[in-house]
Amino acid sequence: GRGIWRVPSGLIILVVAYLGLASAPVLIGWAQGWPPRPLRDELSSGLAMTAFAILLIEFLLSGRFRAVSAPIGIDLTMRLHQLLGRLAVVFVFLHPVAYSLPLAQAPWDDTRASVLGLTPAATATGLVAWVVLMVLAWFAIVRDRLPYRYETWRLTHGIGAAVVAVASLHHTLEAGRYASAGLARAFWITATAAALLSLVWVYLVKPLAQAASPYRVARTERVAHAIWRVVIEPLAASAFRFRAGQFVWLKSGSWLKLADHPFSIASGPADLPRIEFVIKEAGDFTADLPRRLAAGTPVYLDGPFGNFTVDRRIGQAIVLMAGGVGIAPALSILRGLATDGETRPVTLIYANRIVEQIVAQDELDRLGERLDLRVHHVLSEPPAGWSGETGLIDAAMMRRLIRRELRAQPLCFVCGPVPMIDSVERDLSALGVPVSQVVSERFRYDAGANTPRERRIGAGLAALAAAHLALAVAFALR
Questions:
Q1: What DSSP designation does 314 have?
Q2: End-of-domain residue from the set 272, 305, 338
């Protein structure tokens, strides 16, 4: 029924681990037995400890650690990074304004119950961390409107995060009533070291590994209007493996570049070691794609990533809905299903603006000989005499094209422009398909439309925020 929602076990493990790490400093401080200070001051300390722990966890939610993103998908991982970061910013913003005790030191009060006891150095590092974090958060929110290249933003974001971590560590150890000794001190030093090492991993270790496993572009060819097929091959034996429907981050030219770009793999796992992409001309990099990815160009991969896969999912029928270049992961899935001898009914609803944008039509016809596959082409600007579907994919069209599948608890995959994904997710929910049976993956991580998925993400964040706030209040009231 529509109320069914199977929570992935991986998500449960991640939430429990997150809550344990984010709550640990407050619980450790609670166990120290210090006499309580005024409510405002203790609440400020509880929020600050929680916020610093969240900020250190943020380093692992950057989307580049498969152990973290694999159970829930990289888009949800990045949404958590974004939303939890904003929650931490709110807590940090409140931290200095909530205190009521004087800043001065009182050597006779070794419990610091009557003063905050801030040294000039602790005040300075606290101010640096506070200001840099506010600036980082603002630039992250308005990044799409800034006249900076992605690699510039990524570098400054990483450097700024490191500054916040180091300055916060000094401030916490120097000024924190509950952090200066014992287990608490060990926790903060270890957690900060782990966060900084994650930057070393992303910005140094991974690029070195990419340099040791280079690829080159074997062929780049136009396959439809403003759409290119790019095939790459390894320059040496490659251990790269992926599941049909996944994607990689690709950089071209030099492994030292910070700029890399997410592209869904269009080939099937059986096509390895060659890897194929279907890429649309859009944005700074792909607008000049024939030159940037000309035959012979060295390329480097980070991946695979993504949960846009049939593996370990249950459904009596498979429905793929692709918009434009969203056909790439759908092709990968179809090729993988054909290789695996899939017997379930498969339906592809493939939407484009004009007929000249349709990719791999002949291959889709051939795949129909190996799969129980039905393909429906949809054009929003059809030519004269067009006999296929017209308009946009909506509930009425789905009810007409996949009526049989809707009765069979289908497994639905949606890939395309974000507005299309949002619209199709809403319509599938209205048609009775549970959220757990709808798989989508976005490469933009801002809040989407009012979809069942977004509502659950919002409810989850509200629950986490309430848990953090409840612990901080309980700590202050002890």
A1: -
A2: 305
